[in-house]
Amino acid sequence: MALLLILTTLSGDFGYVEEVVVDEAASGRHISTELMRELLNLAAQKQLRFVDLTSHPSTTAANGLYRSLGFELRETNCYRYTPERSTVPQT
Questions:
Q1: Could you read off the pLDDT tens digit of each residue along the chain, which spans 91 residues?
Q2: Of these four, 42, 49, 51, 54, which has the most CB atoms within 10 Å of its CB?
Q3: Separation between Cα atoms, residue 56 and residue 35, nearest integer Å
Q4: 44-51, long-range: CB within 8 Å, 24+ apart, which pairs?
């Protein structure tokens, strides 16, 4: 399975890929490649400005797939806020 989120912002629509998962029994059959191609075709049909995704550096096969499909590694700071472990600073 693979999920393409379509997000609408003031500057237009863009896509975000989530949950690319293939059962181990189907491993080696290039299913993840076909899933990604379908998502990218959908993104083109929807005229999305770009498609982003996040992949852990240790998943070398996935990272290789994304690069082979034309994704470019971005230098960015990735932040996460977890409400149950944090408090909102008061002014």
A1: 999 999 999 999 999 999 999 998 988 899 999 999 999 999 999 999 999 999 999 999 999 999 999 999 999 998 988 888 888 888 7
A2: 51
A3: 19
A4: 46/6, 46/13, 46/15, 47/13, 48/6, 48/13, 48/14, 48/15, 49/11, 49/12, 49/13, 49/14, 50/14, 50/15, 51/4, 51/14, 51/15, 51/16, 51/17
Residue ranges per domain, the chain?
Answer: 3-85
Q: What is the pLDDT of residue 33?
A: 96
Please choose, from the candidates 28, 34, 25, 74, the residue with its C-alpha nearest in 3D space to the C-alpha of residue 51. 74
- 53 Cβ partners below 8 Å, 6+ apart? 16, 17, 18, 20, 66, 71
* CATH assignment, 3-85: 3.40.630.30
